[in-house]
Amino acid sequence: MEPYNSGGDVSSSASSSSSSSATSITKPQEMDGYLAEAGYNVRSSELRHVAQRLERLENVMVNSHDDLAQFASDAVIYNPSDMASWVDSLLSASDFNAPDLDFADAIMTDPTAALPADTWSDVPPPISTAAPPMQNHQQITSFTAMEEDSGIRLVQLLVTCAESVQRGDLALAGSIIETMQALLTRVNTACGIGKVAGYFIDALSRRVFTPQSVTSDGGSAHENELLYHYFYEACPYLKFAHFTANQAILEAFHGHDCVHVIDFNLMHGLQWPALIQALALRPGGPPLLRLTGIGPPSPDGRDSLREIGLRLAELARSVNVRFAFRGVAASRLEDVKPWMLQVSPKEAVAVNSIMQLHRLLGPDSTRIEMMLGWIRKLNPKIVTVVEQEADHNKPGFLERFTEALYYYSNMFDSLEACGAMQPDKTLAEMYIQREICNVVCCEGVARVERHEPLAKWRTRLEQAGFRPLHLGSNAYKQASMLLTLFSAEGYRVEEKEGCLTIGWHSRPLIAASAWQVMPLPEATATATNRLGIVNHSANLV
Fold first, then answer.
1. What sign for the dihedral angle of Cα 169, 171, 172, 173?
2. ω before 80 within 30° of 0 (cis)?
């Protein structure tokens, strides 16, 4: 998140480019200029060092309340605009020397052993494609061609199998699955199409052979948080979501002395330390910050939401930000009611949804309409929405399956290029595998991964009485600088119609947008279909 410049204005100008790519920023001197302009006293050559220190600082947030408590002081001591020294100083003060990504209670030698055995589908193990020592170049070429042919054949069979499932011919689908499992022995399942095919074959197998075992249950809250953290560390997608949303929220809060963030998916609270630090440096002093974090109940009886709130409170106190936290435990987002949030009319409210609203979609539009309706009644200054840029909510199985196959092939390619080490990458891949399994295996209320592209969200939100807020040039620069922390060159950030997307080469994968409430006459004129969600006379329940 961009820190405030004590001598500058917090508002940002809109980007003049309708579509641009971060990959064009290649020269170190150009990146140093962007960093200086954004208020960062750090060179591009130092970013990787800073990223490693930030990762360790995140682990303090996740794992150690005692260590975080040492950050507390009565004054703002460090200037976050001097990024490198600030992070090093915090780490020195915390005396935190645990290894990176240390989940001591969960990580085992076998990464899949960190989670219950019956939670996961059987991931096809990497199958060795090693051949006897080749005698000449012709043999190598022949072997490579055979593997490529097998990969192409796998894709064809996957689509044919999906067609059989859509027709209800499960006997034929089962036969094709057996053929594909045999064909997997001819390709490298550790990467590329072999890995992607393995996950999709596994999901099809579960749907065809054991449909009764497929439910909407994605595992325990602890498992979800564990995999979320590894996916967060392995690739830039969640960091992009947090940075972009935070920048928009920061600008929306300009000039307000009492602000309230409602987070639809708190997880470890990793999104909020950067916002707290930026508010601490705000010209004129920081506001009172209230944070309401929504998350699942802890199965072991622990108040995990409160524990996260305490850690954030310690961090806020260390930089003299007045802070209040409220945890709302709910198994489903639709179970949350407005009265639980205790919103005051004197507050500037921000509603933050990171990959959550799609879970309210389905054949019955009542859930998403009710949610957007009561969000609108809160009259927030801003609503930040980050969603997968995919179309996995189609009614036809074949169309949904082929879209998912293409989408997740790009996702796995980008993850492979990041060079994450095992077992970290394995656990990050399990996060994606859960989405694949739900998209392919489940139907009805059990299918919750109902991703839709930005164009559909734009229509839905405008009909619900919201209008888009332009994510300005600061947000674009934030996302561009984020990509410098990853060695892969295929990531692209693009700006279009005031929204930002991050993707792999030419394929957008995640989209971020910001919204504000329309005045009632404007909302009435904009909506093409008068829905109950814009009826202000309705009672809040």
1. positive
2. no
